[in-house]
Amino acid sequence: MLRPGRFRHRLLETSFLKQHASEIHHALHPFLAMWKQRELKDFEIASVYILIFSFFRRPADFLGGPHSDFKFDPQEQGIRGRKVIEILRAHLPPHLNDRKVLNRLDTENYFVEEFCSLSWRSIPLSVPRSLRAWERGLYPLELLTSVPTPEHVLEMQCQGQRCVSMLTELEEIENFVEEGRDVLGFIVHDLIHADHFFADPARAQAQVLFCQKLRHVYTLPQIQNLLHTDPVFRSEFYYIMSDMNSVPLHLLKTLKAIILGHFKRHREADFKAPLGAVEEREFLDLFQVSLKPWALDKASWEAALRLNTPSSRLPEDALLLDVALNKFP
């Protein structure tokens, strides 16, 4: 039995996309039309999108065995598996439209139920978990047909939301690669991150709070200057803004390391070597300004200043900051 997939960023090779992008785009077209007419919900079109790419990628064995991680109501409303497969077969190249593997989805069951009840090659269980939670209204996700800016993602996270990008233009399908991800890898990545973000409600709430504080840090003139002048800092800061899921303590440690990294690069010295007195003061000044949105008490403030240093007091500092960073107004 095929186990649930392990995610690789690049799922579709360039040669594959050059050969099949037009066929994939053609197969997507009727479903996109239905979605635009509100005949398919967002989580349904996302499921169909993954189906089509997965099928073209491995038309003989993209599906694995069944699993029972999700419970469904037989009365749920939505497009049925048989309808999806009927439409898909009608828009496949002749040499693919009779593939037997599609029969496993050709049932009168709710399509999303069928999708989530099976293992998919290279698709982790986080993906059907997110689709199922999205369908139930548990994960507040917004479907986009574009790639959002880091600022857009941060703003959504400040509001307790995440986005899922589904790129549909032929040129995008054929050529898009960002951070090593093709269009299939991109939507899979977004659904994995949605599950990581929302699966634990308490952790999700804590990360929302961190994002709200980070939004203030982003607006600082000193930070804006670094975003415009240091490409490495910009890449790392955008990552923590929009693409990193973790507990607030780890996020704060990462933020401090990103700021320190700028001063290390600026000094053009060994990263293991300490900063000079002037750079150390400049670094601490910027980190302390960046800490202010959290309004930490004195003990927690001092613990934050000790983060990532030999003077850090573990586990006391970690416990202190874990409580302080998870306080809600």
UniProtKB/TrEMBL annotation:
Protein name: Uncharacterized protein
